[in-house]
Design goal:
This protein is 39% helix and 20% strand. It is α/β, with parallel strands linked by helices. Bound molecules: nicotinamide-adenine-dinucleotide (NAD). Nicotinamide-adenine-dinucleotide binds next to helix 8 and helix 9.
Amino acid sequence: MSSIQHDVKSIFHKLGVPESAYTGGTLAVRTPVTGEIVAHVPEVTAAQADTVIASAAEAFKVWRTVPAPRRGELVRLLGNVLRDNKELLGRLVSIEAGKVVSEGLGEVQEMIDICDFAVGLSRQLYGLTIQSERPEHRLMEQWHPMGAVGIISAFNFPVAVWSWNAALALVCGDSIIWKPSEKTPLTALATQALFEKAAEAFGGVPAGLSGLLIGGADIGRQLVDDSRVPVISATGSTRMGRAVGGAVARRFGRAILELGGNNASIVTPSADLDMTLRAVAFGAMGTAGQRCTTLRRLIVHSSVYDTLVPRLKQVYGAISVGSPLTSDALVGPLIDEASFNAMQESLVAAKAAGGAVCGGERVDVNGAASFYVRPALVEMPAQTGPVLEETFAPILYVLKYDTLEEAIALQNDVVQGLSSSIFTTDVRELEQYISAAGSDCGIANVNIGPSGAEIGGAFGGEKETGGGRESGSDAWKGYMRRQTNTVNYGRTLPLAQGVKFDV
Ligand code: NAD
């Protein structure tokens, strides 16, 4: 048994995951750290998935009647269990998704943060009261639970995305069914075990309140097509979202779609270049370029281009690439060979389109089965070819501009609309950028990069990013149904708009 296999076994033992949950199954799980297989996880059959869905639908009928602050207590306990097991789960994220240590731990911290947020929400979930035009009438809106919420998640945030959905859905009175990425089932098994610990401390929850479906896209499709699941929250590629969005719409379900990004930052003449440099480095190379909010396009004013870009190239040349488990490198591995090949194809296409490529080559860290790369910086003459696509790898395309209008137009001239940012100390530029005529993205930051969101704000993007919002602010409304109530407490029956109907 290799040291990583031993690590996985020991983490699962401490978390109480039985060996049968990760051995002898059909789904081989590789760690991108070395490329070796570390587990064989059993996948659910269609019939088993059906039982999980039926059970979640039943659990909902009980859970919706539990007072919301009491539901919040379950999520508070979940947050505490996550606090107690942060190191273990964070390490498993590093093993399974290849994140460097601080990012693995950061992902678990994000889970804790959203639990705290949801606990507060559980005493709110406010509706409105509205003035009625009719005498002795009261008009109000209240929010009720929706039902079972299907959560489909991507490999790159293997557990945080579940928690954004789960913590809110649970306080909203919904049950949850999780279909994690087939590339990251281990962290899902661990998270489910932690949920069960919280449920036990809570004194028990309805059976099936939180279901887990381990499997590939087929199981995802089954979940998406099931009308017992009124909400599907799907995080992943735009290709997946197009299929899921269409299928959910056909049965009039509700889809929350969190899809691909092609995020840009604009560097203006007044930018603090030292800070910009650091922000760009984290935004473009952090998580080895495998965040939905990764900085992929840098749009630099011609007056600062020759100062900033050579410095950036130095940082790119010097950045540490290495194992997240045995080094303190800042850039870990790509998830798999397909990801490496996609990166190389984009670099070839960028060169063909006139790009000047710096970096991008493979780095041998742990042998032929793992895929580490030096992040690539590509100076492009125009926004064409691969610049218009999301390649899920650390490639930063650099473009030059002369007027802010031109820069904003370039930034917005892609099909994705997730995140964006501007580096400026000029208040006019700043305001123009975040105005209605500025960035068209769901996230528009100032003097920070496009990635690394906190949970307090609503998270998501426009256009082919899918339009969904998760996490903070009023994203909870996506997990509830709104009911408008008109209450007549008088003895007459005045009709709205002065309509007469005397019988
Ligand atoms: P992916 O689309 O390959 O897979 C995501 C999930 O969808 C997996 O669980 C997969 O099994 C499932 N799936 C695939 N096809 C399906 C179908 N037809 N029906 C139901 N389920 C299906 O994505 P990935 O490679 O795991 O993740 C990377 C992508 O995710 C990137 O595009 C990234 O930008 C995006 N992402 C977006 C956000 C966001 O919040 N906007 C967050 C993280 C990742």
